[in-house]
Amino acid sequence: MNQEILYVTKEGLDKLKAELKELVEIKRPEVAKRILAARENGDISENAEYDSARQEQSYIEGRISELEEIIKNSKITDSEKKKDNVGVGCIVTVHIDGDEETFHIVGAPEANPLEKKISHESPLGLALMGKKVGDKIDVDAPMGKLTYTVLRID
User: Fold this and answer.
1) Are 52 and 87 in contact (CB under 8 A)?
2) Is 22 in a helix, a strand, or coil?
3) Over the Cα atoms of the chain, what is R_g?
4) How many CB atoms lie within 10 A of CB 123?
5) Helix (H) or strand (E) holding 137
6) DSSP state of 120
7) Cβ proximity of 128 and 138 under 8 Å
8) Looking at the 3D structure of the chain, how many domains does it have?
9) pLDDT at residue 46 is higher than 80
10) Cβ–Cβ < 8 Å for 108, 12
11) What pLDDT score was predicted for residue 1?
12) The predicted structure's pLDDT at residue 94
């Protein structure tokens, strides 16, 4: 099976590992207790608590599998060294339509647009990869083509 390398920052990998630990050591035993308690209440065929606990167990087990796979296939990016061009782990400040925006370029597993963490695989992230200060890029957006100018790479 061909495994895809997933790029993450050290902080991102630490968060994923912490989530996995919480699911395995806290959430999994809690839901197992809920299932046991619901079974002890008798007939499970029409037991809403049992059904709810089984659904939560299914979600937890799926997320555990997903996190184990991500962690196994992840590669930490070296964001400590000075960057001359944009790469995973960089914080990039760009100029767009008279405004400055700052984005943290991260791996797909840790992307969160609300926190201005964009994946290197997203349209903007992909366009920024490898660019240097002063470079201009055009990105297609729902409102039309937008031109970004790289101002700073940290």
Assistant:
1) no
2) helix
3) 21
4) 12
5) strand 136-141
6) T
7) no
8) 2
9) no
10) no
11) 39
12) 94
Q: How far apart are CA 93 and CA 101, in angstroms?
A: 6
**pLDDT surpassing 50 at residue 143:** yes
Residue 84 confidence (pLDDT): 83
Tell me which of 8 and 17 has the higher pLDDT: 17
Q: How far is CA 18 from CA 12, 51, 146, in A?
A: 10, 28, 38
Return the bridge partners of 93, or none. 102, 152
Range of the domain at 67: 6-76
Q: How many residues does the chain have?
A: 154
- Judge whether 84 lies within some domain: no
pLDDT digits (tens, 9 = 90+) for 71-99: 999 888 765 555 788 988 899 999 988 89
CA distance 145 to 154: 26
Question: Are residues 147 and 113 part of one domain?
Answer: yes
For residues 137 and 147, the answer to whether their CB atoms sit within 8 Å is yes
Fill in the amino acid letter for 55: Q
CA distances from 82 to 85, 89, 154 (A): 9, 11, 7
Q: Which of 129, 135, 132 is nearest to 149 (CA)?
A: 135
Q: Are residues 12 and 70 both part of a single domain?
A: yes
